[in-house]
Predict the structure.
Amino acid sequence: MQLLKDKIRNEAKIIDNRIIKVDNFLNHQLDITLFNEIGKEFKRRFAGKEITKIVTIETSGIAIASIVAQYFDNVPVVFAKKHAGLNMNQDVFEAKVYSYTKEQEYSIKISKEFLRPNDKVLIIDDFLASGSALMGLINLLSQSSVEISGAGIVIEKTFQEGRKRILEKGIQLESLAIIDSIKDGQVIFK
Amino acid sequence: MQLLKDKIRNEAKIIDNRIIKVDNFLNHQLDITLFNEIGKEFKRRFAGKEITKIVTIETSGIAIASIVAQYFDNVPVVFAKKHAGLNMNQDVFEAKVYSYTKEQEYSIKISKEFLRPNDKVLIIDDFLASGSALMGLINLLSQSSVEISGAGIVIEKTFQEGRKRILEKGIQLESLAIIDSIKDGQVIFK
């Protein structure tokens, strides 16, 4: 997706030739116009797939998933909670995820009532790198009876082997910008 | 806003005649069709106001703010972070908030680069109860040079005195459903 690649080239901050910060449009300030283009592109890539629900992970996936849902007949969005409050229903599906940016393990939870047996789920998330968050979410969904129709990722960093782990599960994986490597502070796309 | 009140009456779970859980459409599963109607309503209530940015707070405000932004010429959304990662810029505006649902104090942060001197900010959030989160956000914004054009809240619980604290600041406050009290497990709107 050219618009997204241009945004990354022009606005991402590269730290230590390793970390890509896209706070300017994806993770802190949100570019709603871009998110709408992302929604159109995911609709194109998952055309013909039946989708009854979009599932994402707190926090950065929520805004994207919500805009994307508008291109899939406004299906409900459910986000896996990382920081469940005292009032959260205890009847949940749960999985463990290791965060490399926070250097700690955490649990993600979804109330069972929001994953129905006939649901066809499209997973949406902002980043795929180690694949840890996405694999955690897939593990969580596998405890329910939903069908996973696909996974749509905004930015994938292939050099961290996340893709392989997802494809082995037989899930259609679509990433809108795939970063092959970072050299001298420059992003090189696949 | 009738549609919202109906949703609350029909789908909210009332706990101890005190806590209103709207996980079904606002805080865990997200009703994107409803959010679009919320966007239209906020546009109507803040008609004529100049808005260059929408600011909200992690987590539940993010999806609503993103959909609402579409009714304000797709202005950027910035969310105050509760759970900043290791990579977050250290050059931030910061304020303290006490959470009654998590029973602890936390910091909210926004990178200074995303609050510009000429910004006219519309604050959007899901709940107004004690007013603690909203007052924290207003304090944070007051450290920058932005102008606060208004605050749009989806559900207000007036019995917790949040409104008074905001109005004293001279900020236009619009809540789409105002809950006067809860009796015998039933919500009574103002």
Observations:
- Chain A has a mean pLDDT of 94.
- The longest strand of chain A covers residues 147-157.
- Chain A touches chain B through 42 residues (CB under 8 Å).
- Chain A has six helices and eleven strands.
